[in-house]
Amino acid sequence: xxxxxxxxxxxxxxxxxxxxxxxxxxxxxxxxxxxxxxxxxxxxxxxxxxxxxxxxxxxxxxxxxxxxxxxxxxxxxxxxxxxxxxxxxxxxxxxxxxxxxxxxxxxxxxxxxxxxxxxxxxxxxxxxxxxxxxxxxxxxxxxxxxxxxxxxxxxxxxxxxxxxxxxxxxxxxxxxxxxxxxxxxxxxxxxxxxxxxxxxxxxxxxxxxxxxxxxxxxxxxxxxxxxxxxxxxxxxxxxxxxxxxxxxxxxxxxxxxxxxxxxxxxxxxxxxxxxxxxxxxxxxxxxxxxxxxxxxxxxxxxxxxxxxxxxxxxxxxxxxxxxxxxxxxxxxxxxxxxxxxxxxxxxxxxxxxxxxxxxxxxxxxxxxxxxxxxxxxxxxxxxxxxxxxxxxxxxxxxxxxxxxxxxxxxxxxxxxxxxxxxxxxxxxxxxxxxxxxxxxxxxxxxxxxxxxxxxxxxxxxxxxxxxxxxxxxxxxxxxxxxxxxxxxxxxxxxxxxxxxxxxxxxxxxxxxxxxx
Length: 516
What we know:
Blueprint: H1 59-71, H2 75-88, H3 93-105, H4 109-122, H5 127-139, H6 143-156, H7 161-173, H8 177-190, H9 195-207, H10 211-224, H11 229-241, H12 245-258, H13 265-275, H14 279-292, H15 296-308, H16 312-325, H17 330-342, H18 346-359, H19 364-376, H20 380-393, H21 398-410, H22 414-427, H23 432-444, H24 448-461, H25 466-478, H26 482-495, H27 497-508
């Protein structure tokens, strides 16, 4: 029986980028005028006074005008004002930066990029245009350029928490998880209440398979925002990946308490219960998962949990449902074949495992299960080749060595059977059935002392193993020790009266006397 690999989902919900704050604007400049002298009185009639021409606006005036338009959301007018300022003062870095902000709010990101670039060219040590440049690149889906812009921001202002967070988030989105860690750590250091940064750091650690670090990060996110279901979900994933299945269960249960509509949690909950061998609970979780959303993988896991509780008919139904949803799945066919075999529906089991092999020719488990099914239909010759193939694919596959040992024994090839069972006991020393079958093969070669040792080991591992007591008694008898054989007979009278009678008959050639 082969345990299915469980799903290990590390799900990260998208994290919204924090928009950089617009740079502070200059306050309106105070314009000073000099009082004009009053002309001397004349005796001749005065002509009407001509009003003086309006003073020409400066670059700063246009910049202030642009700020006023910007602040009331009139971004097109702000653009014109900033462009006027720049036409009067071509090296006006602040106006270029503000022009970029206005373009950004008009969704004219390409023009925003050019404006920010001019601001950076004129004032390369100013972090604000780099922030805007990163925003514009993100709108244009130019993530590598956005990353470079944020790198400049954190170079110039290492203590800007939002920039560190955004840089880390972009590294994460690009799959550059190792590079994402440091800026996200800095973001959490600079803003210890930023639950998003802690959560994103945890997801990054999960993708780096650093589960313990992920656990601590998710705990911090939950400390700040206890009702954040995603953080509890990902905490459960991190616990699961770290092998802390009880803690994973508790985290997943908390998700259900917080968000009853978060139905995908039941798949993960079932996986954690399965790892704890709480198969009845796993069945209920998987049933809830497939009720919410029929899914081939969940049906497959449900079938596996049913198999572990010997509910093979239910397992068969679950595997068939999985196959209907996703037919080309070798694993489901193999598991279906196993469940059919457990109900002694051997021909169907053979067909199912053949389908598994057709879909995945390197599936050692399917070859082993095919050999197992052939053995149970008496087709031992046909069993040998698939079992050999299973061993070629997976040399340390204990079950395949055991099954081929059965085939060889049934074919009377006891030397080969001994070698196969020796391999099985070497790979799994605590398997009593393998030791018992090894003893049988030894006995068939008249190696009675070796047979006795193997049967005794089987009994040591499984003290109520009636078949091993019977075989041990027979081996003692064949080795000339009738008294020791009778000792096994006495034990069998309690464990298995039928086997006790059979052993007595072999020793004495007659049935034991009946007692009142």
